[in-house]
Amino acid sequence: MKTYVALLRGINVSGHKKVPMAELREILTKVGFVNVQTYIQSGNVIFQSIEEDIQKLTDTIQKEIKDCFGFDVPVLIKTNVELLNIFNHCPFSKDKKENSYFTLLYWTPDKLLIEDLSRFKYPNEEIIITKSCIYFYSSIGYGNTKYNNNFFERKLKVTATARNYKTMLKLLSLSSDLK
Fold first, then answer.
1. How far apart are CA 123 and CA 109, in angstroms?
2. Across residues 36-54, what is the average pLDDT?
3. Where are the domains of the chain?
4. Which of 37, 105, 108, 135 gives 20 to 30 Å between its CA and that of 86?
């Protein structure tokens, strides 16, 4: 049985797309996922499954959310190893890393779009773009930045979901505990 982390994009934000975590855990357990846990209300699900096809797992979660709550939600699934690899490859110094954001990409953006986005520079902010993640640091805080998830999605024409350093640490801890 493998352990997975599902990252749901855009739920429970400003009263939109409400997905109660207790209901989500119950729904995913009923479809056969094991040891289903959620972390905070922003759509982080840790679970185990004998299914190894990531697309099938993604489709199952999306279908259950659509059937139960009535709306579509982008779902990105990573294994603990994949998430740990993204986390460990954060290029920032320790101080910056602890205050950084990880914008996880649902697919690899076009190389030309990455080059175009890399030209954007804002004071007190840094981005480093890889095939699966945008590492983002802002000394002025996420709420005040020009770089946000919607900005990255527009510029790269990709679906993405962001998590901060502390959330990444917690997801790694929860998913490693299930091994």
1. 25
2. 94
3. 2-80, 82-175
4. 37
